[in-house]
Amino acid sequence: MPDLSVVVPVYNERDNIPPLLAEVAAALRGKIDYEVIYVDDRSSDDSRDVLAAQKAEHPELRVLHHLSQSGQSTAVRNGVKAARGAWIATLDGDGQNDPADIPKLIAERDAAEPSVKLFAGWRVNRKDTASKRLGSRFANALRSRLLRDATPDTGCGIKLFERAAFLDLPYFDHMHRYLPALMQRAGWKVKSVPVNHRARHAGSSKYTNLGRAIVGIADLRGVAWLIKRSRRTGIEEH
Fold first, then answer.
1. Taking the model in full, what pTM does it have?
2. Domain 4-228 class?
3. What are the domain boundaries of the chain?
């Protein structure tokens, strides 16, 4: 069984697949026993064929395909459910996350107390457009005010978390944006780790500020309700 499963959701990212897989191999091969699980959210380009061809160069690669387009959160969750590793690293499929940061997150995990179950990437020097940076800054401030999750950047795609803890969280569409708050709701601790961020070199973004805002308002209310209704207690067996 691998020590680590790297889960990468993709939708129409055919040109970003080979270079990102090469970077994952450069960062992890020979250093840790790992697998890479790509989850194709029913791409309309030839991402599926590109992934099939990459298996010859990357024996660690496993490929899942959605039968209907279901979004990033569902892709991440299906990848985690299929994963064999006890710990999961996630990357966005657009290549803006740097796989070289995965060993840094693993080192943070090894030095942390066992109650820390999520190590969240923190893009301290974002390479996005000014409008996306402004939109994210506003969304992060609003989310932090309402949820009090003490996390500066929940939208960063690179994360490291325990598989069992993740699968114990409530599932809903867009949940990947609220993992710190959901982990804390479950009684676990979260640590933000500064990571590298790169400009997108191929393809186009699948999100807009307006689209995120429309679903974000409902999501924030829902997560706040989940936190308010949460009940936790220790247990012992006699």
1. 0.86
2. alpha beta
3. 4-228
